[in-house]
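README, section 4: Worked example with a bound small molecule

Sections 1 through 3 covered apo chains. Here we extend the same pipeline to holo records, where the ligand is supplied as SMILES alongside the sequence. The molecule in this example is flavin-adenine dinucleotide. Nothing else about the input changes; the structure line simply encodes the ligand pose together with the chain.
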Amino acid sequence: MYEFNEQTRALADVVQRLTDEFQMPLEARKLRGETIGRADLAPGVEAARKVGLWDLNRPQELGGPDLSVVDRMAITETAFRCLVPLRPGGSALPPLYSLEGEQKARYLDPIVAGEIGYCFAQTEPHGGADPAGAIRTMATKVDGGWKINGTKVFISSFDNARICFVLASLDREKKAGGIAMFAVERDNPGLIPRRIPMLGDFVTHELIFDECFVDELAMISPAGKGFKGAQQTLSAARLNVGARAIGIAQRAYEMMVENAQRREVFGKRLADLQETQSKVVDSWVEIQQNRLMLYAAAEKADRGHDIRIECGMVKMLATEMCARVLDRAIQVFGAAGCALDNPLAHWYDHQRMARIYEGPTEVHKYRVLARQLLA
Ligand SMILES: Cc1cc2nc3c(=O)[nH]c(=O)nc-3n(C[C@H](O)[C@H](O)[C@H](O)COP(=O)(O)OP(=O)(O)OC[C@H]3O[C@@H](n4cnc5c(N)ncnc54)[C@H](O)[C@@H]3O)c2cc1C
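The generated complex, written as structure tokens:
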């Protein structure tokens, strides 16, 4: 099945070594019920930085790391085999890399230096699957800047964010063409957050923008480019969500095999029962199919081709596949698979959400793929 070339293999081995040293002990602590915070993650992030795993979103033509898309996917897939994955730091949203001068110094540089975190706010209470149609948050021109009014929901990473990059419309009639992107500082008095606890121990936020004033420099992308830049961000993220799902499914598969070989029922190893064999074989085959698809898409991107269609396909199929593998693995573990001292239970919750964020399965199927195939 899909084999990494020598360079990618070496890179994946480095990520695995860092994972074993820094992340697996954190996984063990999380499984004992401890909360893992930013300070706990810092040694792994720093060790990754020392070996050049930093600012991975920066395009190569703007001085980004000499890594192919295949390399990047291999890093993600390997890292996500751990419940507390290694997450290299210093990466900004793609549209930020074209900022210059004072704007670059204010927004891009501190992110790349690893000094501040950020979040990205697109989804609104009226719907996230069709953001161009649903965005009602408005930005109005005022003296010296803009006033933003509206509400965003289910926004990840606000707890660690100093800046929120928010999509707002200047003219709703223009739909996507009227949407711009603004930067709002976390401590802006016009930004009111509310925690939304989600499945598992994940937390998102509702963000209310109430007469929220930002100055001229806070406009990151003007009307029309805001939405395009956001979709560019999400397209890249989708392939990554697929790579994560494959890494998680691979570890769940290995755990399922190990348990099937060890555990006995009715005087037989689970591994000797045909029903277990079916779960193991189906999982292995589906993981291989998805890996072939992921890395074929990544290789196509490395040859310079547009892979927007493949991004949607990989995201949709890999997250659905991962959910099936986790479900089978939990069944093979019995009650032990449902206990919170087992990574399977944590992934099961989180991966349920992965079929919704970065575009629900149906959006990829009907809005992206069906539209393209039947055009
Ligand atoms: C854990 C998590 C983290 C998130 N983090 C962020 C974040 O950081 N920033 C951000 O902006 N958003 C974030 N989101 C929101 C996410 O992007 C939205 O949930 C997603 O885009 C879907 O929007 P919605 O939930 O409003 O569903 P809706 O738009 O209300 O859609 C509901 C359902 O309708 C179905 N559907 C949609 N379109 C079609 C169609 N064409 N045909 C058939 N069925 C369809 C789908 O099953 C969909 O789930 C996050 C969500 C989760 C769960």
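What to look for in the output: The beta strands are 118-121, 138-142, 145-155, 163-169, 179-185, 191-197, 203-215, 219-221, 264-265, 268-269. The pocket of flavin-adenine dinucleotide is lined by residues 119-123, 127-129, 154-156, 198, 202, 204, 353, 356-357, 359-360, 362-363, 366-367 (CB under 6 Å).

Section 5 describes how to batch many such records.
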